[in-house]
Structure formats: structure tokens, C-alpha cells
Design brief:
The structure is a homodimer. The first copy, chain A, is of the alpha+beta class. Chain A has 2 domains: 75 residues, 3-Layer(aba) Sandwich (Glutaredoxin); 101 residues, Glutathione S-transferase Yfyf (Class Pi), Chain A, domain 2 (Up-down Bundle), CATH 1.20.1050.10. The first copy, chain A, is built from 8 helices and 4 strands; from the N terminus they run E-H-E-H-E-E-H-H-H-H-H-H. In chain A, strands 2-1-3-4 form a 4-stranded mixed sheet. Chain A is globular. Chain A starts with a strand and ends in a 9-residue tail after the last helix. Chains A and B meet through helix 3, helix 4, helix 5 and helix 6 of A and helix 3, helix 4, helix 5 and helix 6 of B.
Chain lengths: 195, 195
């Protein structure tokens, strides 16, 4: 397995966390983000979206972090990180989807605008981001983990852009259940610290 | 199974298509969208996001269409609609994720702005939407289906907001492989016509 990534990418970080927890070896290929290597032809042939992470797995190319997490969890994680009963699989997928909706175009995009990496309306993205934090707090108020009563790839997928939400102008401390959940994630054996 | 939906909702339509194809019975609960029933307390207790579709399944509430598709496909669809090998599951999940990224905040949001249901930058959303159509055309140029060489929930998840892309100002006819794929979807036994 080969992971095309940058050290700063939160979506790449998700894969590194799961691989670290499950002790799965992979080859790291660092993309020169400052020189826009991810927007130029050799890389664009791997991923026309021009984004990291990309993974080469069993001779196939995957360009979405949810797909990477699903592959590693199913291949190496037994029933722990991605259970396979219809109801449990659906519950994990629901939070994977959430990591790609309000968390992505709310928390992540707001941070992108503040850091001058993205254009668009900060106010609009912060609105979605607050909805993300409210929903997480609502769920985590009486659950330790997002899905199925145990840590899964749902938690890993949602973690990085919540952890970095302050950079997008969010008052993370206003959501104590979310802060407590971030700490529970960080205490999992094998968890990698987010730089 | 109970499906809270509106007739106009593309995300609700995905569930209705899969249930129709697999001949799975469910109870339909029509939400009064014009009177904003989805933004008021009884419904908001089911789904704090204030969106349809929502499903009640085996006593649990799910508020994301990807989760609904995954549940129905795993429960009733054998290996056809959501295969379970790590590589195939990852491939389907990659396109489910895509249906919730560029298709969602590109094609769907642009249509929302044109139809005066959403605010935000039409130009920005159309930019993402064109990327969605380009990626789909790139993939479908030499594949009949989005994932694993057969129709799966990946195709169902991506279909509705591509089918309606013209309403968001997109030149769908500029992407012949996408048009051909829409027709292949519509020819599947049990497929429901999108109103």
C-alpha cells in the first residue's frame, strides 16, 4: 500500500491514525504541496481532483479518504473498526458521511478561508460548522463514541477538522462533550498526535 | 422501516429507487416541506439537521441517505448492490463519498441557488459542479458503472443530482458518457422514474 499525502493534510492524517492503531505498514509518498505538485500532471493522472490523500492498494488507485479507511478497517481491523452487520455498518457510514458534509464544508472550509487557502463566504461556512459542532455535542452528550458504542473509523474520520476547528474561528470550548470525545480519541492505544 | 421524505427530495428518491429495485416494503411518511415541517420540533427531534430523508430502522433513527442505502443493500441486496470484500466495499464507498462532495456542494447547491432555495455563490458551486461532471465523464468514458463493474448503490447515490444538473445551469450534453450512464441506470429493472 502506498499513501500519497502531505504532513499537513487532515484527510491524510486519518489514514495514518488508523494504520498506526492497527499497526499496518504502508509506503509514504510526500507530495510537495507548496509547489502544487498535487495540481500538476503526474499526480493529476492518479487523482483528477488534485487532492491528497491518494492510495494505491492492490494495484488500484483510490482518491477518497473514506474509501481508504474502509479498506484498511475491513482488511486489518476485524469487526472492531468497521462492523459488518447491516445496522452497524449503516451507523458508521452515517458518521463517515457527516465527516464529509457539515464537518467538511463547515469546519474545514472555514479554516481554509481563515488560512487563505480557500475563497468563499467565511460566514456561510461558519454557519455550517456550528451546526456540525452542535450535532456532535448532541450525540456525544450521552455517548462515548459516534457509532455503535465503540471506537470506529467514524471517530477517526470526524476527528481532525474538529480538533482544528479553533483555527476556523469556532469556540470549541462551548461544546464540552466534543472536547471530552477528542481526549478519548487521543487516549486510544496507537493514536497519533495531530501536529 | 419508515421513510420520512418529500416527493421532491433527490436524497429521498435514492432510497425509493433501491427499495423499488429490491422490492423492499417500507412505510412512507410525507413531510410538509412547504410548511417547513422539517425545521420544526417534532421532526427536529428525529433529525437535528432538519433534512429529509430520515429512516427509522429496527428502532433506530438514521438521518443520512448513504446510511439508508448501505442498510438496505446489506440487508436485502446480497453481494450485488454493496459487495463486502475490502477492495470492493472501498470502491463503492469512494463513490458514495463523491455523491456527498462535488455532486452535493456543486451540482445540488447550484440548483438550489437557481431555484432560490439556497444562498451562496452560484459561480463557486458551478465550479465544483463542473468538476463533478468532468470526473464522472472521465470514469464513465471506459466503464459502464461507477464501481466494481456492476450497478451498485454508488450509481444510485450519484444519479439524482446529475440527472437534474441542467436546473443548476450545467451543460449536461457536453458529457456524453454521463448521459449514457444515466440511461443505463434508468434501464435497470425496477428503476423508478425521477419526477
Amino acid at each position: 500500500m502506498k499513501l500519497y499525502m502531505t504532513e499537513a493534510s487532515g484527510n491524510s492524517y486519518k489514514i495514518r491514525v488508523l494504520a498506526s492503531i492497527l499497526n499496518v505498514p504502508y509506503e509514504k509518498v510526500l507530495i510537495d504541496w507548496d509547489n502544487k505538485e498535487h495540481k500538476k500532471p503526474p499526480f493529476l493522472r492518479l487523482n483528477p481532483r488534485g487532492q491528497v490523500p491518494v492510495m494505491e492498494i492492490e494495484g488500484k488507485v483510490f482518491w477518497d479518504s473514506a474509501a481508504h479507511l474502509v479498506y484498511i478497517a475491513r482488511k486489518y481491523g476485524g469487526e472492531q473498526w468497521l462492523p459488518t452487520t447491516p445496522l452497524e455498518l449503516a451507523e458508521v457510514v452515517q458518521w463517515l458521511a457527516f465527516s464529509q458534509s457539515e464537518i467538511h464544508f463547515g469546519l474545514q472550509w472555514a479554516r481554509g478561508v481563515v488560512n487563505k487557502l480557500l475563497f468563499g463566504s467565511l460566514q456561510e461556512y461558519q454557519g455550517y460548522g456550528r451546526k456540525a459542532l452542535e450535532l456532535l455535542a448532541w450525540r456525544l452528550n450521552d455517548h462515548d463514541w459516534l457509532a455503535v458504542g465503540q471506537p470506529t473509523i467514524a471517530d477517526i474520520a470526524c476527528y481532525p477538522y474538529v480538533k482544528r476547528a479553533r483555527e476556523g474561528g469556532f469556540m470549541l470550548d462551548a461544546y464540552p462533550p466534543v472536547i471530552a470525545w477528542l481526549k478519548r480519541c487521543e487516549a486510544l492505544p496507537g493514536w497519533l498526535k495531530l501536529d
